[in-house]
Specification:
The protein is α/β, with parallel strands linked by helices. It has nine helices and 15 strands.
Length: 331
Amino acid sequence: MTYKRVIVTERGGPETLKAVECDLRPPSAGEVRVRVRAAPVSSPDVSSRYGRTPFAPKVPFVPGYAVIGVVDALGEGVTGASVGDRVAALITYGGYAEVAYLKEKELIPVPGTVDAGEAATLILNYIVAYQILHRSARVQAGDKVLIIGASGGVGTAFLQLGRVAGLTMYGTASPAKHGVLLEHGATPIDYHTRDFVDVIRQAEPDGLDAVFDGMGGDYYGRGFSLLRRGGVLVGYGNPLSIRRMLRMFGQMFLYNLLPNGRSAKYYGTGASRLDRRPFLEDWAALFRLLEEGRIKPVITARFPILEAARANELLESGRVIGNVVLVAPET
C-alpha cells in the first residue's frame, strides 16, 4: 500500500512543491500512524522552502508545521493512544502528507466536535497568540496593545483572543484588510500611508501596555518606543538568518538593560520540546474556546492536501486574511 506526501524538491517558490508516492509502513516502536485530516499552511513553511530561516532544513523535505488527524495504527509500546483517536501535533516538518508518523509524546488530544480545518489553526497560530498574551505579556482586561501585522494567521488569532481578554487593540494592516480588524473591535492603521508610531503617540500619549511584533527588522525598535513604563514588547517573527537572529537578541538584551521599566522578549514554540505541560494546558483552553464559539478562526481558503502548491501560492500573494488550510478530501 502507498500514500502521497508533498515535498520541496529545491529552493524556490511554490512550483518546487511536488506530490510523491511513498510506501505505507507500520509505525515503529513508540510511534503512531495518523491519517491526516488537516494541516495549516504557514509562514514558516514558506520561509523553510526558500531557505530564509536560521536553521533551514535540507532539501528535499516535507513542509507542514502542524497536523490534525486520526490514529490508524500503533507502534510497539504505545499505551497513551488508541486507533480512532483524534489527535494533533506540532511537528515543524511533515504536515503536507496524507499520512504522518508521530511519536506518542508529540500527540495533542483533539475534541471530536470541532472542525478539523479550524482546529488545525489552533496548533500553531493560535498557540503563539495565546501564549504571548497570557504567558509572555500577561495581559489584563483594559490593557492597550498594538499588533504589528494584524491580518494574517497569528494576527487574526490575536484579534479574537484579545477581544476575549477585553483588550483595547490597534493593528497594522493594508486598507483592504481593515474590515477584519474593525469586526474584532480593533483600530486599524494603514502602514502604507501612515506612520504607526505617530498614530499611536497621538491616540495613546501615555503609551501602550504591550506590542506584539511579527515583522521584525526596524519594527522591533519602533514598537518598543511606544511602550509605557512597565510595558512589554514581544517579538515572534522569523529573523530569516542566523546573523539577523543574533542582532535581534543583542537588541533585546540592550533594551532590557535600559532603566526605563520596559522590557523586550522573544517567543518561539521550541519551548514545547522542553516542557509540554503549559502547551497542553493552553491547547486545551483554545479547544474549549472553539467549542464554545468564543473564537472562530478566519480561513480564507481550504485546499486538498496534494494541492499544497496552490495553497502556498495564495499565501504568498499577500491577499490572504487569516489562514489557509490543507484538508483531506473527506474533511
